[in-house]
Amino acid sequence: MRFTYHPFSSVVVAIAVWLGLLPLSPLLSELEPVLAHSWFILGASAVVGLGLALLRAPRALILFSQLLVIVGVLAWRGLEMAPAGEPLESLQLLTAEGVEAIRSNPPPLPMESGVLWLTLVFTAVLVIVVELLVNGLEQPAWTIAPLALGYGVSALIITRDLDWLLLVPVIAGYVAILLSVTGAGEAAGRASRAGSYHVSRTLVGLATGAAALALAIVIATTIPMGEKQPWNDGGSDGPIQLSDPTVRLNEDLHRPTDAPVLTYRTSNGEPAYLRTVALPSLSQSGAGLLPMSLSRSGMERTYEHRDNAERVEVEVQMAAVPSEYLPAPFAAAKWDADGLWSYDPDTLSIVAAGEDRIQQTVNLHYKVESDIPSPTRSQIQAAGAGGGLDSVTREVPRGLDPSVTALTTQVVGDATTAGDKALRIQQFLRSDAFDYSLQAPTSSSGSDAISSFLLDQRSGYCIHFASAMIAMARVEGIDARMAIGFTPGQQQDDGTYAVTSHDAHAWPELYLDGLGWVAFEPTPAYQGNPEYVDPSAMQPEASPTPAPESSPTPTVAPTVAPPSAEPTPTAQPTAPDASDGGIGATGGWILGALALLLLLALPALIRIGLRQARLRAGQEPDRAADSAWNEVRALFADYRLPWPEGSPGPVGVAAAEGLPPDGAAALKEISSTVERSRFARDGAAPTELPAQVNALRIVLSGNATTGTRLKALLVPASLWQSGR
Question: Domain for residue 490, yes or no?
Answer without folding.
Answer: no
